[in-house]
Design goal:
Blueprint: H1 2-44, E1 71-73, E2 79-83, H2 97-100, E3 107-109, E4 131-133, E5 141-142, E6 155-157, E7 169-170, H3 176-180, E8 188-190, H4 203-210, E9 218-220, E10 242-244, E11 252-253, E12 266-268, E13 272-277, E14 290-292, E15 296-298, E16 316-318, H5 319-322, E17 330-332, E18 339-341, E19 357-359, E20 387-389, E21 396-397, H6 401-405, E22 412-414, E23 419-423, E24 436-438, E25 443-446, E26 460-462, E27 467-468, E28 484-486, E29 493-494, E30 510-512, E31 517-518, H7 524-528
Parallel strand pairs: 2-3, 3-4, 4-6, 5-7, 6-8, 8-9, 9-10, 10-12, 11-13, 12-14, 13-15, 16-18, 17-19, 19-20, 20-22, 21-23, 22-24, 23-25, 24-26, 25-27, 26-28, 28-30, 29-31
Antiparallel strand pairs: 1-2
Length: 555
């Protein structure tokens, strides 16, 4: 018994060693098997080795195939992902049996290659695939029915390289209904550019099939001649983040409730001339950051609730397209993440004869719209203009005299924080309607124009942070309207006192003359005339201390 006991104690660790060794051999064999399949795959593919960043580096001498570029393995050594996008592969995929033997594969990316063959049916054997990207790879012809076996797919991208070519992918047999009927896990569907034209009379089957996939978050069906209406069931897709239906020949009215899907970020309906609709009110916590309705038949006004879309960014606005709107009366694009592009417009094309309100503050303007100037004389053609705000841009050049000459309608002119230079034109006309004039933070030189006295309604004058050289503007001392006077950071000089009368600056409330070269004494009598700065009594009419400009409310 004692001998057997010690023998047993010896055999236990031996079994453990042998057992562990056996497991190691199985794992090693598995890795070797996967490496062999990868090398067979490389041998079957045709590609330009001088441009390859992945396949060209796969070789027998490298022991760890799981560390090869484009290869990902699980902890057991099985290949679970192949990223072979942009590898200049031109052929061989149709006979790549090694690829179809990678049964553990969950992710396959062959995008941006140079195939000119059909999608190989063998991909349908990779039933563990969750991500399949064959976009822009040159695949043509009918999408094989075998792909419908990939029931675990979460992302499917079949977008073609040449969407308008006759040689592109088609979905006829199976149609979309049969193709996705078992794809219960699908969340991202990219079929933009895939020929679905045979389904034009089958929108109801599409409706029935797609409506069951309410976990879809991305739907792209661009560049298809669907010739149909947009079904309202998309509004039931609570996870939807992207709906792109560009150039689908859509018709009828677009369902308003789709705009209000809470997590929807991108909505592209552009280039559907027969698609009509209007933009509804937006919810407070909307996620939309891009809405494209160009070249559609949408009408109506933008709701004020568009301000609820805190993530919205609209990109670059080409001003030459806006310039063709001859009946435009109001244009407000200020304080967005927009870049207004005026580089392709010339001075004669910017007319806007009916324009009354133009706000382009903080739009990154550098050219507007004449290449030889940043503010052109053509802006003066907008003879009905009441509010012009170009502040916080990068405009340079001089201020066109005609802009001030035509200020009998202009109530607000804000050119602050640009790169304007030269002098302020002395061309303010009799009957000047300006109430706010802001030319601050530029490079303007010279003096304040004498004709400013013609602006009897002027309430705010801000010329701070320029290079003006002048005396204190006593010419404005009798103004009954002026309430704000900013002269800061210029080269004004001399005394700040004007001829003493009881009516000097009587409504002035704010004055800033810091960082200049003023001299002399400030006496008490000088300030005692400034009644506007004093505490108002109970008899002051309501609203007297509120500076505002009530421009015409346009629909």
């Amino acid at each position: 018994m004692t001998t057997l006991y010690f023998l047993w104690l010896f055999l236990i660790p031996l079994f453990q060693i042998l057992s562990g060794y056996h497991i190691f051999l199985v794992s090693s064999q598995c890795l070797d098997d996967q490496k062999s399949l990868l090398l067979q795959l490389k041998g079957s593919l045709r590609y330009d080795s001088t441009l390859s960043n992945k396949l060209a580096k796969w070789n027998q001498k490298t022991s760890e195939s799981c560390n090869w570029d484009g290869v990902t393995c699980d902890l057991s050594g099985h290949v679970i992902a192949l990223e072979l996008d942009d590898e200049t592969i031109s052929s061989g995929i149709e006979n790549a049996s090694a690829l179809f033997s990678l049964q553990y594969l969950e992710r396959l990316n062959l995008a941006y290659n140079r195939f000119s063959v059909g999608i190989p049916v063998g991909i349908g054997n990779l039933t563990n695939l969750k991500y399949l990207n064959l976009s822009n790879a040159g695949f043509v012809g009918q999408i094989p029915m075998m792909l419908s076996r990939l029931t675990k797919l979460v992302t499917l991208d079949l977008s073609p390289l040449f969407p308008y070519s006759n040689q592109r992918l088609k979905l006829e047999n199976p149609n979309l209904r049969h193709f996705i009927e078992n794809s219960t896990e699908l969340r991202e569907l990219y079929l933009d550019g895939v020929d679905l034209s045979s389904l034009r009379t089958e929108w109801c089957p599409i409706d029935e099939s797609l409506s069951k996939l309410q976990i879809l978050s991305i739907i792209r069906l661009d560049q298809n001649n669907l010739s149909t209406t947009v079904p309202g069931y998309f509004a039931n897709f609570t996870n939807l983040t992207t709906l792109s239906l560009d150039s689908c020949n859509l018709q009828g009215a677009f369902p308003k409730k789709i705009f209000q899907v809470q997590f929807l970020e991108i909505l592209d309906l552009s280039n559907n001339k027969l698609l009509s609709g209007s933009i509804p009110s937006f919810p407070r916590n909307g996620s939309l950051r891009m809405i494209s309705l160009s070249n559609t038949n949408f009408s109506g006004s933008l709701p004020e609730s568009i301000s609820n879309l805190q993530s919205l960014s609209s990109g670059t606005v080409p001003l030459d397209l806006i310039g063709r709107l001859s009946n435009l009366t109001r244009l407000e694009l200020s304080y967005n993440n927009l870049t207004v592009d005026a580089s392709s417009i010339n001075s004669t094309s910017f007319i806007f004869p009916q324009l009354r309100l133009l706000k382009l503050a903080s739009c990154r303007l550098q050219k507007f719209p004449d290449l030889k100037r940043r503010i052109p004389e053509s802006i003066c053609n907008a003879s009905y203009l009441q509010v012009l705000d170009f502040s916080n841009n990068a405009l340079s050049g001089t201020i066109p005299p005609c802009l001030l000459e035509n200020s009998t309608n202009l109530g607000v002119l804000n050119l602050g924080n640009n790169k304007l230079n030269g002098v302020i034109p002395d061309s303010f006309p009799i009957g000047c309607a300006l109430q706010t004039l802001d030319l601050s933070e530029n490079k303007l030189q010279g003096r304040l124009p004498k004709s400013l006295v013609n602006c009897e309604l002027l309430e705010v004058l801000n010329v701070g942070n320029n290079k003006l050289v002048d005396r204190f503007p006593c010419m404005l001392r009798n103004s009954n309207s002026l309430r704000v006077l900013f002269l800061r950071s210029n080269q004004f000089n001399g005394s700040v006192q004007c001829d003493a009368t009881r009516n000097n600056w009587k409504n002035l409330q704010i004055i800033d003359i810091a960082s200049n070269n003023f001299t002399g004494v400030l006496n008490a009598e000088f300030f005692s005339n400034w009644k506007g700065m004093m505490v108002a009594d109970d008899n002051v009419e309501t609203g007297r201390n509120h500076i505002q400009y009530k421009f015409l409310q346009l629909s």
